Structure formats: structure tokens, C-alpha cells
TrEMBL record, chain A:
Official protein name in the record: Alkylglycerone-phosphate synthase
EC number(s) stated in the UniProt entry for this protein: 2.5.1.26
The FAD-binding PCMH-type domain, residue ranges: 86-261
Keywords: FAD, Flavoprotein, Lipid biosynthesis, Lipid metabolism, Peroxisome, Transferase
Residues bound to FAD: 138-144, 193-196, 245-251
Natural source organism: Neolamprologus brichardi (Fairy cichlid)
Binding site for substrate: R392
UniProtKB/TrEMBL annotation, chain B:
MF term (GO), any: glycerone-phosphate O-acyltransferase activity
Protein name as it appears in the record: Glyceronephosphate O-acyltransferase 2
Residue ranges of domain Phospholipid/glycerol acyltransferase in the record: 158-287
GO cellular component, one term: mitochondrial membrane
Pathway(s) it belongs to: Phospholipid metabolism
Any single GO BP term: triglyceride biosynthetic process
Subcellular location: Membrane
Family per record: Belongs to the GPAT/DAPAT family.
Coiled coil (residue ranges): none
InterPro entries given in the database record: GPAT/DHAPAT (IPR022284), GPAT/DHAPAT_C (IPR045520), GPAT/DHAPAT_LPLAT (IPR041728), Plipid/glycerol_acylTrfase (IPR002123)
Highest taxon, organism lineage: Eukaryota
Length: 535, 630
């Protein structure tokens, strides 16, 4: 695993000797393949040239990391319990940041790391932390993008990170919960952040999947007495835990629903003449409640990006076929290549039902001018969500920084929010002196009865900027303000962390803040779980 | 994901976009003091050199707003009728069947809708070119403003907001945009124009859409109209042109803006349906207004002739006259997004259906636009002369005559004052001042005449009529002439209003204390806010502006707490105070009249229905009187 980038150490994008982009490793469908269109796309989109390279700091130097503030008494007592721990600089840096762009460029002040194995270990650690007034920061998979894992600068106590990632057993069952980070994120983290998975249309979001939770808090252990599927016993205490972002305690045990592995899986894709038609189609699909396991709509820029990531074709026949498809869509059907957009689909279930379902969805799409564009495009679309995070690392090598963020919004505002937020990003970049037009793109990734989840990506070439991280933060901030002004939510599933804290009050009202605050005050009066997320 | 493209257009244009320093414009009073003749181009010059037919038939291929679909008028109507909002309103209308209400809505839309057609734009271009060449010596347009407009149109929906001083300016913007290959606007017009035979239809096909005058509480009509306007803005299918003042100013003075249309136009931004809207204030100034005499009579209560095609032909005798020059000054495009930053919280609309407005902000914006129009207006030598003529006793003007020499001297003095006050002056360069003076008087021979070193007021019909006049007729006749002068004076008024109010405050309070003057300044500003354009909530800025202008021209000396009048400043102060005196008199007289006191009439201006209307509105606003329904 990389500390200064996304994912596995063996998997990354690089330019080979011929100057062609290549994805290394063996883990993904794209691994080991040459991607001929990527370089041109990078150059034309960002003005990112091969000649201008910025190497990321490859080896971590212990002296570059702040020396830890140690609490000897706490350590001594804890050593006697035999729970493994580490002071190692690399471990500490690794655990004190998530995957937000900014945190990849920061250092840490954490003192030690403990690797908890089971519920009882955690109980012991929390008890001792309370006794010695040590600050605890739970750590799951480290995939946070909301600065939730950064150490609060105002914290003066010894900070101890609690890694729970080894607690997830490889069970082999299917929970159906598949966030884009699923290879790396942890179950406890999903619960603590109110996560959402790609296939929520079939399996539901984390709140629909969870049956039972056990959490260790400074006041003791919280859990329900039974596993009834629904209870009317006042407000659901699970909802204090889900989304608490490590401010109340450590989630040690979760019971989740499991489902049989789907018998049959089928990808699909639909091309629409423009984004407006695509959104109208998704809305209709949501209205008829026939959304497949996943349905995502990419805008035109992402469509072009996806195309740039197409691997080298193996035969003349395939490239001939591609040419034919292109001719059919643009010339025969009259789609404008600079406006068309594509929806990717994933169906799951038993074979017969999938085929029936597929037909229903394609029929609706046809009413909105959509043309079926094949399984292959659909599958590549989903593969992209796993490799796109690696691509960010390639961008950083060439002065490109980027980030994604999400929101949820009622159906009637989807088009407005997409247009306005993208335009705001472009305008802010320009105002802040970014030399090249940024990539500013979005996709609708989830559908609900009442609205949709929208994902924005933005990236820009920071050559010529004296403080790119600051510019980047300003742009992200402006984009979030635009989202809120257009009726979007503060977060659909990334959570609040520290990055979005400032908008919490206007989001949930002062009384709402008071409610959460009083729970925190009761559960953790000494602020042992002092990561200062959320509130 | 099927094939590859080259990025075109958008990438390159990143560097070409002019960085517009929009915030600059908000700093009121920062406009350049003297517009050089060079900045303006005479568009009639080329029209006189080449044939009108060739001009009308040239290729017209403008660059539209980027995302705009090339929708036809029927698409527009369809979009309006099928909009969610209209369907909602129709469903609310009870009493008759939905189909019937839909039918009614369709009827309203038919009556309202424009039918912009390129063929008619060409016809319009041809005719307008012919007429304008007859009426005007030249039509000056600032090319820089046009360039900025062209750029702005490609970036966001554009609203063109000219001032309205004459019927002539109805098509002038379309004419200019056609000439420079910029998309033709659709124009909001009053319904009476639509009922003119043939002409109504020509206007409709040249892009006019028609709005009823008294809409009252007709919900369906409001719904159709607002949806129609919003759809135009939202789709950006054409720039939208409308008069924020609501109607043609009879007094040539800016009218306090109307907010209905402004609301509808801005709503798509407030609701997030468009990223931004660009407002372009346009100031149109005339050396001589075509309908000057009609205006004066109208103000005195003679009903205005109904708009009709035959009336139009009868009026064609105006073609024989010379109306000097016309200046069309395209203001810097203003981004609503930037102007409203920090003023409104758009997320307030997150929980309610998206059709409510932010009146305060709209009101502020509307005033800002009119103020910007004022600043962009060019003041002619004639306006300066009118200011001075009106300060002479009326008997001097009608009987003894005013000394030509003295008037020339005073006008030149006033010219300097206007420049000190950063007004835009349209004073011909490279022409001896005496020639400017005499040609100005010649142009306005219908109001004054110059004979044997003296200037006299022309009173209509004088030589022909042998019958002795009744006193009423005499008053009316003089009043009509005076009100014409008043109109031209009004064209310059905006430059003097703020320092003028301060001068009046100094004159009345006799105080030198700054805070005392400020509170009286605020009182007058409040009383006259139906009369002059004051941007709401900027009283202290207005006061500071007045102070700094008076200081600049050497009239007063300012210290931390005091304002002292300088010996050298008496002339300026007395001029300013006399300039506003008629307004004070009118308001005072009218106030006495309302409260059943008697008073002596000091000014003819009180006879103007416009002044009376403003006074009444002010009294109602200040809650001195209330209106009872009859």
C-alpha cells in the first residue's frame, strides 16, 4: 500500500519509454495495458506536458515528521496488555491522513499506533486512554476524503491512533455494499461515516444493511439487546453511531445482512444526445422504481475522458467496428459529439429477471432518445471508478491536482446544480490565476425516489501558481458553497470530517447542533475521541 | 467512450476572454469625465456611403449564447405552455375545465408572443436606416461597449436595458446589433403598439413581444408572462431588451424603476436555473427629442394621441425636421452573480417551491442600472443652456430677452462645472464655442430664438394668432414652452442632484455642522426619492460624493466635522440651489394644496402631471396621506 497515493503499490499509471500511458500491475482489467489516448487527453485537457514533471516524495524521512508527544504512563500500562503498537514514522503518517488531495501533502503529530484485534482489546485501550487522558483517533481503511483523519492542530494531548482494519474477517459472503473504495475501506469505517455503496438500489445504503452495532465509548459499550429487523423504541440509537465519524467511540462489531451471490450479472450502457435527456431518463427510471443495481450518467467531459482511457485495440476488426459505431451515432443519428453523454448500467439477479429488467430500462431510455451502446462500454465505465483514483497520482506527477466531491439533490434541481457548480469551478480557477482551463465534470451516480446523488470531479494544471494547495482549497470551498446555494446537501456519503464542518450549523440548524453536541458531551465528556470531526 | 475527439474552441478562448473588472462599475461616479468623440463611431456614416438595400440583405451570422438551442418561436411557446409552473397554475384555476384554462393561456401567449424573423429584421433594417438618416445627422455608438456586449452574449444570457426617452429608440438597439452582427434581441413592449395595423405585426416579427398595461390580479396572465420571460432568459435563445423604467419618460428625467419585469428576468438566476445573467445598461441621449412638444402638452394634461398606424403617418411631418445627433452608449456588462454576492442567500429557496423573489435586492439592482444609465448619458450643450434659461425670470425670457453674451459665458462656466462633477459631456471638439452655441440654438428653434444679441422663448402659434389670449391660454402656452425647457434641463439633472441637495441643505439650515447637514441631506433625499434616482441604502455614500464634488470645484472647505462655504463657491452653490428650487416649490405648493392651504405659484413645473404624480407618491410613501378607494 502507498502512503502518498492511492491503493496498491504495484498498481499505477506511468508513461513508458515510448511516451505512452500504461497501467502497471495485475489486479485490474486495465492492468498491464497500454492506453494510447490518455496522453493526448491529459495534454489537451490540462496542458500537462511530459516535460514538466513533479516527483512525489517517494521515501519518508523520519526527521521530516514531527517527533511524537508521548504519554509514558499510558504506554507502560498498555504494553503490559500485549496489544501490538508502533511509533514508526511511516506508520504514523499513513494513519493520520485520508485520501483528500490536501492531506497527501501534509505531515502528522500523532505519537503511537495500536493495532486492535478484537472488541476486548479496544475496551482496554479506551479504558486506559480515559484514565490517562490520551486522545484516541480510530482508523479504518484510511480512505477518507473529508480530512477526517487529520490530527486537530489545537490538540496538545498525546494522540494515539487505533487501527481497526485487521478486524474485518474475510467471510466470503456478499453484503452487496460496494463503495468505490471497497478494496481498502473497513466495515467500521462504513458505519462511522454513513457510507453508500454502488449497488444500493438492490442492497441499500449502510443504514439499510446494518442489523446490529457494538461500539466502545468512554462511558462504556453501547448496543441493542436484540436483532429485531425494526423497532419502535424512540429514536434509533444506531443513528447516533452511523455518521459519528469517530467522535463518540470505536465500532467493534457490526452485524450486517447478507445476500446470496447474484446468479447473473450484466453490464450495459446507453448513449443520450445530451445530458438533459439523460437526467430526464434517470428520473423516469427512478419514478418507475426500476433502477438496476447501478445506473450512472456521465456528462460529456467524462464521456471523453472515459474514451481516452480505452486500451489499445488488438485487431483491425475491432477498430473498424468502433469506426462504424461512431459513424452510426454521429452521422446517422445526428448526435453532437460535444454534447452527447452516456449512462452505464449494471444488472444483477437471476438470468431471466435480469433480461426482462434490462428490456424495461432500455425501453424507457429509448423514449428519451437513448441508444444502447453495448456491454463493453458499461463495464469499462465501472472499472474506471476503481482506477480513477490511481490516475490522480499520475496527474500529480505532472502538475495536475484534482479531487472529487459529492452531493445529493432533489430531482428538479439536478440539471441546475450540475451546470452551476461546473461553471463556478471554471470561473473560480480563472479568477485565482490558474493558467489552463480546468477539468470540471460531473456524473449522476445514484437515483432515489426524491432525488439523485451527483459527483463532481475537478482537476487543474497548477504550473505557474505559487500556492496551488491554497488555490485548490479555495476552489473546492467555492464549489461547496455553490452546491448549497443550489439546494444540494452538504454530503451524500463522504461525510463532514473537518473539511465541511463550517457548514454544519446551517445544514442541520442550531437546535440540531445542540442535540448532537449533548450526545457527545454525555458519551465522551473528556473528548477522548478528539478528532474534532463533524461538530 | 467510442472514439476520440480533439478539443476545439473552448480551450483556446480561455485566453481571449477579456477580464472584465465588473466591480469597478459599482463604484458610482467613476466613469470617465469626458467622452472623446473618437470613442464613438457614427454608424450612419457608412449607411450614407453604401446602399440600404445591400445593407439589409447582407449576410447576418451572429455568434449566439453558447448552450442556446436554435429554437424557433413555436418551440418557445410550446416550452412555456408545457412548463411545470404553468401547468401548476392552470391546475389551480378552478371554476372552469382545465382544457378551457389551457385554451385561455394559449390565447394570452398568442397575443404576447414575439415572432422574430430574419426577413423582417432586414425589412426593419432597411426602413429604420432610411428614417434615421432623415432624422439625425449622426448616430454615435461606443464600439468598446459593443465589443464587450458581443463577448458577454456568448457567455451568459444577456439583458439589454436602455433608457426610454423617445419612440424612436424602440428599434435602435436592434438596428445597431443587426449592423454589427450581434444576435437580435426580443423586446418587451406595451400592448397598444400591437394593436397598430400592420406596424404592430412588423414590430412583432422584428422581435417585440407585448405586455398588457393593467394586469392587476389576473393570475393566469402573470403566470404566462413570467414563464414566457423566464424561458427566454433560461434558454438564452435571444438577448432580452426591456425598459427598466417601465415607460417612456415624459420629462426626459430618469424614472424610478419598476420591478415587475426585473423580478421575472432575474428569477432564473436566483433559482439557480442559469449560472449567471449579464445586465447591459444602455444610455441613449438625444440632442433634440422628436416628440418634444407632444411631451409637454401631455404633461399639462392634454391626452396623448393613441398609438395608431394612421397617427404614425400623420406624424411623418417630423421627418422634415433636423434632430441633431443621437448617442447610444453601451455600458459595461454587469454580472448579476457578482453584484448580488453577499447580498442574498440563494439557499433560502432550498425548501420552498422556487417562485418567490428577493424584492430588496431586485430594487437595489434596478436602481443601480438606472443610475448607470444616467452616468452613461451624454449631456448636450443645450441641456446646460436649458438649466440656465430656467433660472432667468420668466418675463425676461418672454419679453425683454436674455443677453446672448451673458448666456454664452454662463454656459461655458457650467461646462466646466459638469466636467468637475464627472459628467459625460457631448460638446463638439475642435469647434469654436460661439459656433456650438449658435448651432445649438438653431437646432432648437422651436423653443428659443436668438435675435439681436438676445434670446427669447418661442411661444407656440404666436405670430399667426390675432385673437387676444385668455389668461388660461396664456399660462398654458408659456407653461408648454417652459416644460420643454424643463425636459432638456432634466437631461443634465443627474450630475447636479447630489451636490444640489447638499447646497440646498446648506442654504436652508445655514449650518456648518457636518452631521446636521447630513441629516437634512437624508431628509431631502428621502422626500425626493420618487423624483431622482438614489440607490437605496447609500445615503452616506451619496453625501460623501456630494461633499467631495463641492470641495473639488472649490465651493466648500471640508474638515472632520465642518463644512464651510468659500467665497469663491457662492456662484456654484447658488446655481445648484436654484436648480432644485422648482422641485422644492412644487412639493411645497402641492403639500399646501393637499392640506387645504393656499399658496402662491412660483413655478410652472408644478403644472406638470409627472411632478404631481411624484409628489403624491412621495406623500404616500412618507405616510402623510393615504389613498381611499372610491
Amino acid at each position: 500500500m502507498k502512503w502518498n497515493g492511492w491503493g496498491y503499490s504495484d498498481s499505477k499509471f506511468l508513461y513508458n519509454k515510448k511516451g505512452q500511458a500504461e497501467f502497471t500491475g495485475k489486479r485490474y482489467r486495465l492492468s498491464g495495458m497500454i492506453i494510447p489516448g490518455l496522453r493526448e487527453w491529459m495534454e489537451s485537457t490540462f496542458g500537462a506536458n511530459l516535460q514538466h514533471k513533479t516527483p512525489a516524495a517517494p521515501i519518508l524521512n523520519s526527521s521530516a515528521v514531527q517527533p511524537p508527544t508521548l504519554n509514558e504512563a499510558f504506554l507502560k500500562e498498555l504494553k503490559s496488555t500485549g496489544i501490538p503498537f508502533s511509533h514508526d514514522a511511516e506508520d504514523r503518517v499513513f494513519r493520520s491522513h485520508g485520501k483528500a488531495e490536501k492531506s497527501l501533502l501534509m505531515s502528522t503529530k500523532q505519537s503511537s499506533m495500536f493495532f486492535a484485534d478484537c472488541h476486548n482489546d479496544v475496551v482496554k485501550i479506551v479504558e486506559l486512554a480515559c484514565k490517562h487522558n490520551v486522545c484516541l483517533m480510530p482508523y479504518g481503511g484510511g480512505t477518507s476524503v473529508s480530512s477526517a483523519l487529520e490530527c486537530p492542530p489545537e490538540e496538545t494531548r498525546s494522540i494515539v491512533s487505533l487501527d481497526t482494519s485487521q478486524m474485518l474477517n474475510e467471510s466470503g459472503y456478499c453484503t452487496g455494499h460496494e463503495p468505490d473504495s471497497m478494496e481498502f475501506s473497513s466495515l467500521g469505517g462504513w458505519v462511522a461515516t454513513r457510507a453508500s455503496g454502488m449497488k444500493k438500489n438492490i442492497y441499500g445504503n449502510i443504514e439499510d444493511l446494518v442489523v446490529h452495532i457494538k461500539m466502545v465509548t468512554p462511558q462504556g459499550v453501547i448496543e441493542k439487546s436484540c436483532q429485531g429487523p425494526r423497532m419502535s423504541t424512540g429514536p434509533d440509537v444506531h443513528h447516533f453511531i452511523m455518521g459519528s465519524e469517530g467522535t463518540l467511540g470505536v465500532v467493534t462489531e457490526v452485524t450486517m445482512k447478507i445476500r446470496p451471490m447474484p446468479e447473473y450479472q450484466k453490464y450495459g450502457s446507453v448513449v443520450f444526445p445530451n445530458f438533459e435527456m439523460g437526467v430526464a431518463c434517470l428520473r423516469e427510471v427512478a419514478r418507475q422504481r426500476c433502477a438496476p443495481a447501478s445506473i450512472r450518467l456521465m456528462d460529456n467531459e467524462q464521456f471523453k475522458f472515459g474514451h481516452a482511457l480505452k486500451p489499445q485495440v488488438s485487431s483491425i476488426f475491432t477498430s473498424f467496428l468502433d469506426g462504424l459505431k461512431k459513424f452510426y451515432i454521429t452521422k446517422f443519428k445526428g448526435f453532437d459529439p460535444n454534447r452527447l453523454c452516456v449512462a452505464t448500467l449494471l444488472f444483477e439477479g437471476d438470468r431471466e429477471k435480469v433480461l426482462q429488467h434490462e428490456k424495461q430500462v432500455y425501453d424507457i431510455a429509448a423514449k428519451f432518445g437513448g441508444l444502447a451502446a453495448g456491454e463493453d462500454n458499461g463495464q469499462r465505465g465501472y472499472m474506471l471508478t476503481f482506477v480513477i483514483a490511481y490516475l490522480r497520482d499520475l496527474g500529480m506527477d505532472y502538475y495536475v491536482i484534482g479531487e472529487s466531491f459529492e452531493t445529493s439533490v432533489p430531482w428538479d434541481r439536478v440539471l441546475d446544480i450540475c451546470r452551476n457548480v461546473k461553471a463556478r469551478i471554471v470561473r473560480e480557477c480563472k479568477d485565482k490565476g490558474v493558467q489552463f482551463p480546468p477539468l470540471s465534470t460531473c456524473r449522476v451516480t445514484q437515483t432515489y425516489d426524491a432525488g439523485a446523488c451527483v459527483y463532481f470531479y475537478f482537476a487543474f494544471n497548477y504550473r505557474g501558481l505559487s500556492d496551488p494547495v491554497h488555490v485548490y482549497e479555495q476552489v473546492e470551498h467555492a464549489a461547496r458553497e455553490e452546491i448549497l446555494a443550489n439546494g444540494g446537501s452538504l454530503s451524500h456519503h463522504h461525510g463532514v470530517g473537518k473539511l465541511r464542518k463550517e457548514w454544519m450549523r446551517e445544514t442541520i440548524s442550531s437546535v440540531g447542533m445542540g442535540m448532537l453536541k449533548s450526545v457527545k458531551d454525555y458519551v465522551d465528556p473528556n473528548n477522548i475521541f478528539g478528532n474534532r470531526n463533524l461538530l | 467512450m467510442l472514439w476520440s475527439y480533439r478539443h476545439s474552441g473552448t480551450r483556446k478562448s480561455w485566453f481571449n476572454i477579456n477580464t472584465r473588472e465588473l466591480s469597478e462599475v459599482v463604484v458610482i461616479g467613476s466613469t470617465a469625465s469626458l467622452k472623446d468623440e473618437e470613442e464613438f463611431t457614427d454608424i450612419l456614416e457608412e449607411r450614407r456611403r453604401t446602399t440600404d438595400l445591400g445593407y439589409a440583405l447582407r449576410t447576418f451570422n451572429p455568434q449566439p449564447y453558447k448552450g442556446a438551442p436554435s429554437g424557433s418561436t413555436s418551440d418557445l411557446k410550446k416550452a412555456v405552455l408545457e412548463s411545470q409552473y404553468l401547468r401548476y397554475i392552470i391546475a389551480l384555476e378552478t371554476g372552469s375545465s382545465v382544457e378551457k384554462v389551457r385554451q385561455e393561456a394559449r390565447g394570452i401567449l398568442e397575443e404576447m408572443s414575439h415572432n422574430l424573423q430574419l426577413g423582417f429584421i432586414r425589412l426593419m433594417g432597411y426602413t429604420v436606416s432610411k428614417v434615421f438618416k432623415r432624422l439625425f445627422r449622426s448616430i454615435y455608438v461606443n464600439m468598446e461597449g459593443l465589443n464587450m456586449l458581443q463577448q458577454a452574449i456568448q457567455e451568459s444570457p444577456v439583458i439589454l436595458m436602455p433608457n426610454h426617452r423617445s419612440y424612436v429608440d424602440f428599434l435602435i438597439v436592434s438596428f445597431i446589433l443587426f449592423t454589427y452582427d450581434i444576435p437580435i434581441p426580443v423586446i418587451a413592449a406595451g400592448i397598444p403598439l400591437a394593436s397598430m395595423k400592420v406596424v404592430g405585426e412588423i414590430l412583432r416579427r422584428s422581435g417585440a413581444f407585448f405586455i398588457r398595461r393593467a394586469i392587476g390580479s389576473d393570475k393566469l396572465y402573470w403566470a404566462v408572462l413570467s414563464e414566457y420571460v423566464r424561458t427566454i432568459v433560461r434558454t438564452g435563445c435571444a438577448p432580452l431588451e426591456f425598459y427598466v423604467e417601465g415607460f417612456r419618460s415624459r420629462t426626459l428625467k430618469s424614472v424610478v424603476p419598476k420591478l415587475g419585469m426585473m423580478d421575472m428576468v432575474l428569477e432564473p438566476y436566483f433559482k439557480g436555473e442559469v449560472f449567471d445573467i449579464t445586465l447591459v445598461p444602455i444610455s441613449i441621449s438625444y440632442d433634440r427629442v422628436v416628440e418634444e412638444s407632444l411631451l409637454a402638452l401631455e404633461l399639462l394634461g392634454v391626452p396623448k394621441p393613441k398609438e395608431s398606424t394612421t397617427g404614425l403617418f400623420k406624424a411623418s411631418r417630423v421627418l422634415q425636421e433636423d434632430y441633431g445627433c443621437m448617442h447610444v452608449n453601451f455600458g459595461r456588462p454587469l454580472s448579476v452573480r457578482q453584484l448580488c454576492e453577499g447580498k442574498i442567500n440563494r439557499s433560502e429557496y432550498n425548501l420552498i417551491p422556487r417562485y418567490r423573489f428577493i424584492q430588496d435586492c431586485v430594487n437595489w439592482l434596478a436602481h443601480l442600472i438606472v443610475r448607470t444609465q444616467e452616468e452613461g448619458s451624454l449631456i448636450s450643450p443645450w441641456s446646460l443652456m436649458a438649466c440656465l434659461l430656467l433660472q432667468a425670470p420668466i418675463t425676461t425670457l418672454t419679453e425683454e430677452g436674455l443677453q446672448w453674451h451673458g448666456l454664452t459665458e454662463k454656459t461655458l462656466w457650467l461646462r466646466k462645472l459638469v466636467l468637475d462633477f464627472r459628467g459625460c459631456l457631448n460638446w463638439p471638439a475642435r469647434t469654436p464655442d460661439s459656433d456650438v452655441m449658435s448651432s445649438t440654438v438653431a437646432l432648437h428653434h422651436s423653443i428659443v430664438h436668438h435675435k439681436a444679441g438676445r434670446v427669447y422663448l418661442v411661444q407656440d402659434g404666436d405670430p399667426a394668432s390675432q385673437d387676444p389670449l385668455s389668461p388660461e391660454e396664456g399660462v398654458m402656452r408659456t407653461a408648454a414652452a417652459v416644460l420643454m425647457l424643463v425636459s432638456y434641463r432634466n437631461q443634465a439633472l443627474h450630475v447636479f442632484v447630489r451636490p444640489g441637495i447638499l447646497a440646498t441643505a446648506i442654504h436652508i439650515t445655514k449650518s456648518t455642522q457636518k452631521d446636521e447637514l447630513f441629516s437634512f441631506f437624508c431628509f431631502l433625499r428621502d422626500v425626493f426619492s420618487n423624483e431622482f434616482i438614489f440607490i437605496p441604502g447609500r445615503a452616506s455614500q451619496d453625501f460623501d460624493e456630494a461633499c467631495s464634488l463641492l470641495q473639488k470645484c472649490g465651493a466648500v472647505h471640508m474638515s472632520q466635522q465642518e463644512v464651510t462655504v468659500l467665497e469663491t463657491g457662492l456662484e456654484v452653490l447658488s446655481f445648484l440651489q436654484k436648480l432644485l428650487q422648482p422641485f422644492l416649490d412644487s412639493y411645497q405648493f402641492f403639500g399646501f394644496f393637499v392640506f387645504c392651504f393656499a399658496g402662491d405659484l412660483h413655478t410652472f413645473e408644478v403644472l406638470s402631471s409627472d411632478t404631481q404624480k411624484n409628489v403624491l407618491a412621495a406623500l404616500r410613501r412618507l405616510e402623510a396621506v393615504t389613498k381611499l378607494r372610491a
